[in-house]
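Work Package 3 (structural annotation) set out to generate three-dimensional models for the target panel prioritized at the project kickoff. During this period the team completed the workflow that converts sequence records into discrete structure tokens, so that structures can be stored uniformly alongside our sequence database. As a representative example, we reproduce one entry of 261 residues exactly as it appears in the project archive.
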Amino acid sequence: MDDEKIIAKHLNNLQNISNPKQKWISVKRSCIYADTAILSRLNLTEIADDGCKTAGNGASFELNGWPINLFSLHLFWENYGPEIIRDKRSTTEAEIYESEKDRIDDIAQLFLNNQQFKDWLNKSQELSVPLLLVGDFNTPSHQDWIEETKQSHYGRVIEWPTTKILTEAGFTDTFRALNDPIEEPGTTWPFNYDKARADRNEPADRIDFIFYQGSQLIPLEAFTYPKNKNLSPQEWPSDHAAVVVDFIWEQEVVDYDEDGI
């Protein structure tokens, strides 16, 4: 695609976003380096932002008076597990799990110290208020590094702890719930797996996730985007692919608190 067509495509997208009939809301962290953000066309009702204590930020939205809560995360990026395994810097499971310590700490901070998230989690479990936990986790999934796929993972089967903590807490990994790990690995990083990356055996994996909790949400389809891996940086500026999920939102009649959330 030539530059003129790329510019025209972006201008068209910007015009759609700025259309008053399609109003978008943006929420970012209050850090100097915001790092995570949320964009939505739903009505914003509440913001969850504790500065830089949590590795992300959250927001509460409503549609036709029905609430939905979302947290966007960007977990610690160093000591990337697949690279450690590739380079044989750690060989035992205990050593590999130790490399995940900072990401586990990020999740612990969210679950133990972020009061807004704790409140939303309780509402999800007790009242089925939908809760989404999304973002770049910088770790693979324990549901991907399994016996049936170990030929793609340096011959290893690893129960990556970060994603396992979430599933044990009642969250569902939407992509893996709808896609077989053998038939659809769902690689999100690196987006453009070029020859140079292949030559240095750079590990490609699924490290971006959309987790959800709350019986009102039913995932119908989950896929990565874009499918064309040969796009230029002007066409797709991220080094990650996006994860897209379509849900049915069954709005049950439940007893919310006086604030409606």
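The chain has eight helices and ten strands.
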